[in-house]
Structure formats: structure tokens, C-alpha cells
Inverse folding.
């Protein structure tokens, strides 16, 4: 929760930047667009530092040590040729990641408790932080961090295999699981697959489509949560989460309104299955590499030949995703007699 303001600000500013570039003629390479993009990047790329600090504080450790570990991960992101006492450090992307820093701070918690017991009190202040980092950093970089990469590659290969065999049946299931793949950093393996697919056959049939369905359903569920809240401040805050998610940035909505209300995620999954089934059966396609799929990126689904079938399908999928997830989440909130905060 402490990092939610940065997530909201970064997400909304990215949405504004995309709006200005896509619809008002602002140059994507101009100074204003670059500055807006940098604000978003600052909010999301430093996730390991924000989460490390907050998680360490919640574990009643020195918060700065968790932030320090997050900063180490950020600095070592995509670094090549690193080693520790002869042990090779794999090249991993940590910017914007969640899972590695959580695992690292969890290990730090136990190391910290152990060192407190064994180090004489007069040396604790300066010796414990040094030993903690010497122990935890190599474990995180060599063992814990690469877990996400291995899982990403495995999941990416598995999804590609499943989609080639049973694409339309797999799409609704994968769309429902996509938020959790993003949370664990497993989605990072999809971008190269998407780029290769567009280069070879001219379109991407699953990666951007999964992201679109997932983002819109998270937005619809977050708006349903906001609709059922009585507290005006929280209603306004979570409404902004939902709008940001509909624009393609889901972290505020997912972490700030849904993950602490697990039953609402059932509504998100119902919307994803329904809209994903439509996208899979009729073959929704994306033609652009990269970007945050949402209502502001509909032009990603415009085919080069100028035909309208795919873009009509895009809007149909979008409407079903938002409406079904909103209705399903609202129904769940009413049936579970959730307290209106």
C-alpha cells in the first residue's frame, strides 16, 4: 500500500502520454513525451527498491536494508559478466519486478535474526549490515533472481505449445491466469515470442490479446469494488485504479484493490474467461510489438490492409471483458456480504 501513490501517478501519466502521442499528434520522440515516459519509468522501474523498503519495514527490520537490496537488484538488472567468488551471476531483468525482491527480503529476515544472536552487541551496528548484504546479495542474484527467468522461459514455451495446438480453448484460461504471471514476472518471456510471431506471420495471436483481456477485466473488477464502497476517499482512489487499468496499467488496481479482496478476483477470472473465449474463437490479432494493451491502444489491432473485422472484434472483446468482470465482481460482493468500507 505505501507505494500505491507512485503507481497511480506513474500509470496515469503514461496513459496521458499515450493519449497525447496516439491521438493529438505529439511526437513520441519529443522532449515532452520522453519526460512523461521517464516519470512513469521512475514509478515502476524502481519497484524492487519500493517493495524492498516496505516489506522490510513490515517485517520489523531496518527498512533501508530492504531498499538497499532492491537498489542492488536494480543496478544489477541486465548486467553481464558478473560473478561472486567464481560463481557466475546470471543476467536477469529486475527493473519493475516483484517476486525476486520479496524472496530476497524474506531471506534477509532470517539472516538478520541469526546475525543478531551470534554477533556481540558492541559490533552489531556496523558488522550485521555488512554480513547481511554479503550473504543475501549473492543468494538473491545467483539463486533466487534467476528462478523468475527460468519460470518465464518455461511458461513462455509451454504457452506457445498450447496455443499452437488448442489456441481458442487455451486463450480464456491463459487470460484468467495472466495477472498472476505478471505478478511473478513470468510475462517477460512473451515479448520475444510476440516479436518473432509478428516478424514471421505478421501478427501476434496471443500475447497482447491475453494482456488486453486481463487488463480490462482487472479494470472492470476494480470499478465494481469502487462502486460498492461507501468511503468517498477510497471510492475515488479505487475508481482511479480502475480507469488506469482500462488504459493498460493494472498494478495500482491489482495490488491496491483486488489482491486484498481475493473473492473479487473470481469476478476478474469470469470476465477473462468469457472475453478470452470470444477472442480465441474468432481469432483476435495484434499487429504491433510492445505497449500496454488497453482502451488507448486499440490501434495496435488495426490491420495494415485497412479491413475492419479485427478492430470490431477488439471492441466486442473489450465490452464483454469490462461488463462481465464488473457484473460478476458486483454479484460476488453482494453475495459475500462484503463490508462497505
Amino acid at each position: 500500500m505505501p507505494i500505491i501513490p507512485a503507481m497511480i501517478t506513474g500509470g496515469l501519466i503514461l496513459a496521458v502520454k499515450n493519449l497525447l502521442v496516439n491521438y493529438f499528434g505529439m511526437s513520441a520522440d519529443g522532449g515532452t513525451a520522453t519526460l512523461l515516459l521517464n516519470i512513469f519509468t521512475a514509478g515502476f522501474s524502481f519497484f524492487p527498491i519500493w517493495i524492498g523498503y516496505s516489506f522490510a519495514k513490515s517485517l520489523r527490520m531496518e527498512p533501508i536494508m530492504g531498499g538497499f537490496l532492491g537498489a542492488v537488484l536494480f543496478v544489477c538488472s541486465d548486467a553481464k559478466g558478473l560473478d561472486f567468488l567464481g560463481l557466475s551471476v546470471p543476467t536477469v531483468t529486475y527493473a519493475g519486478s516483484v517476486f525476486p525482491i520479496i524472496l530476497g527480503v524474506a531471506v534477509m529476515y532470517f539472516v538478520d535474526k541469526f546475525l543478531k544472536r551470534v554477533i556481540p552487541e558492541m559490533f552489531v551496528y556496523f558488522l550485521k549490515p555488512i554480513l547481511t548484504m554479503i550473504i543475501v546479495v549473492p543468494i538473491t542474484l545467483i539463486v533466487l533472481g534467476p528462478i523468475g527467468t527460468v519460470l518465464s522461459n518455461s511458461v513462455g514455451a509451454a504457452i506457445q505449445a498450447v496455443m499452437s495446438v488448442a489456441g481458442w480453448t487455451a486463450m480464456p484460461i491463459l487470460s484468467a491466469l495472466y495477472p498472476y504471471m505478471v505478478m511473478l514476472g513470468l510475462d517477460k518471456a512473451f515479448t520475444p515470442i510476440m516479436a518473432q510471431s509478428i516478424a514471421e506471420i505478421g501478427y501476434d495471436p496471443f500475447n497482447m490479446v491475453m494482456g488486453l483481456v486481463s487488463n480490462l477485466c482487472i479494470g472492470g473488477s476494480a470499478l465494481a469494488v469502487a462502486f460498492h464502497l461507501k468511503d468517498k476517499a477510497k471510492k475515488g482512489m479505487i475508481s482511479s485504479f480502475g480507469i488506469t487499468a482500462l488504459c493498460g496499467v493494472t498494478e495500482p488496481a491489482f495490488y491496491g484493490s483486488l489482491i486484498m479482496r481475493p473473492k473479487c478476483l473470481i469476478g476478474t477470472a469470469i470476465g477473462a474467461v468469457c472475453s478470452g473465449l470470444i477472442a480465441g474463437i474468432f481469432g483476435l490479432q495484434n499487429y504491433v510489438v510492445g505497449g500496454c494493451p488497453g482502451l488507448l491502444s486499440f490501434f495496435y489491432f488495426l490491420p495494415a490492409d485497412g479491413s475492419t473485422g479485427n478492430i470490431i472484434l477488439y471492441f466486442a472483446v473489450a465490452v464483454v471483458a469490462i461488463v462481465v468482470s464488473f457484473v460478476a465482481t458486483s454479484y460476488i460482493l453482494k453475495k459475500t456480504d462484503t463490508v462497505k468500507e
